[in-house]
Amino acid sequence: MDDFFSFDLLTATLRFSAPLIFAAMGGLLCERAGVMNIALEGFMLVGAFAAAAGTYYAETPFAGLVAGMAAAMLAATIHAFWCVTLRGDQIVAGTAINLLGVGIPAFLLQRIWGTPGGSPQVERLPGIGAGLNVLVPVALVLVPIVHYVVYQTRAGLRIQAAGEHPRAAASVGIDVVRYRYACVIASGALAGLGGAYLSIGDLSQYTNNMAAGRGFIAIAAVIFGNWTPFGTLGATLLFGAAQATRVQVQALGLNVAPDLIGALPYLLTLIVITGLVRRSDPPAGLGKHATAE
Amino acid sequence: MTASVRYGARIALALALVIPLLAASVARGLAQDEELVVTVVTDTAGLGDGNFNDLANEGLIRAETELGIRGEVLQSLDATQYQPNLLAGAENSDLTVGVGFLLQQDLDAVAAGLPDEKFLLIDAVAEAENVSSVLFREQEGAFLAGIVAARTTKTNKIGIVGGIRVPPVERYEVGFVAGVRTVNPGIEVVIAYAEDFEDPALGKELALAQFNQGADIVFPIAGRTGSGCYEAVVEKGEGFLVIGADRNQEDQAPGQQMAVVKKGVDAAVFTAAEQLVNDEFAGGVQDIGLKEGGVDLTNLGAMVTDEVAAEAALYKQAIIDGKFQVPATDADLATFTAPDVSSFATPVATPSS
Questions:
Q1: pTM attached to this predicted model
Q2: Does B199 contact A212 at a Cβ distance shorter than 8 Å?
Q3: Which of A35, B26, B147, B342 has the maximal Cβ count within 10 Å?
């Protein structure tokens, strides 16, 4: 088993986890402010596409990074407008964003490059060795920052108030709408980074639907982590480790069902949601509005 | 806004959306009298998969330019779109092509309900009489790739990264393993499945893990997941090789593609379109391999020596001549014994009976 618990397993875990950390931190901020966010997958796809396109045109992946964040922030603004200003159904809005996230890049690929399915290859973000790219440490540093913002700053406490009891928050003069907008848009920026991680960090092109469900896994990580930044980090690392283990098992040709290992974290998430292990404690005001209509 | 104004606005909006669609479909109906239309319905990997969906589209484009038909492509974002796409194709065109094993059940259902329409199904067999089903003997091309890979590997370890183990993927895998074993049973073939045709990041990790365990060649049979394997090969650099499935993708790893197992999905689509134009289209099952030019080993890289290429050519001729059968399933592989290359190395020595 010496081969098994190797340095490669650790780096693969980090590579699988990094995009999940970005998206999950975004989802956490959004939900702590009381807006449900199942649109992470769509944000990631839009971000991944814009990152590849930005890199292609500006010829530097750093411009792609900015483009990826900006495009996902735009998508997030639509989500915020629908959910916060129009008080629309947050699940429906998220579903719509996810469909747009698949459809719009596919449409633009055809229009811009005439290559359905995938963009041309573009330059990647610089690596830091061991097959990791520069976004991996950024993802890890992000977690204590989110923790600090949510628990130690005035803005963070107001975000929590907006998420726990929006009407009470509004009654003491907190601009719930503004905080919610800020958090939803921030979640777009972070999930967009997660998408950029895929298209210009780990790989060097956008391909259709390349997030492959990672946005939904990030939602599961937020729930598993009980809406706390470090808990969520733990969940993303667990999910990443499960994927890395599955890959390692297959590479070693071990006689263990790889699908079972891959499915294990989601099984755990289901058990957590059902409350068998501990009480799931979502923000009390999730999906509620600050004022009665 | 009063309720009636809102109601009126909604009707106006609905009309604004519907009228252009109606106009378009009327225009299409008028145009249809003049030209034959062929519709390709992709599986979920869709156009840009670098594999058989792209090949089907290439065949369609060739038919457009050479036969003067009009081609349409309907992409399926998920499996629930197969049936509506096939129905739309059948209603609006003269020949509807279902690309891939995953469309088999839906194509069967649609074709049975529309017995006057014509269908082509790639990689699977449909029951209905109005369907022409084309199966490829991928195992024969993959067998040759296995021969070349076994002679080219320096580490005696080769990886396969599959998408989902549907029958055509199984045929690729089994044929490749048989080829490797024929040359050198001591070579280890490591097999990993992504269970996904659309996750290049996962494909990259699967290939990297195989390389980190000592493999130096990877054979992706995984649609867009496989493009991640090309990225892994580029990242590992010199000495690491990739084998293309279905179609040449050398631009993704210049100088590091060992060979391509070419699959003639483009030719199948073109031929069906040609039969349609000549009014010769017929249902039934075609099973095409090396002999019929349905599959082949092409685009040998510079790292493949002439000797190895010659050896592969020898096996190719033997398969074409029916000297031995390449296994297509796990069961075949279990009972497979490697053919003796010396028995067909000198064809003149064996008298014909």
A1: 0.85
A2: yes
A3: A35
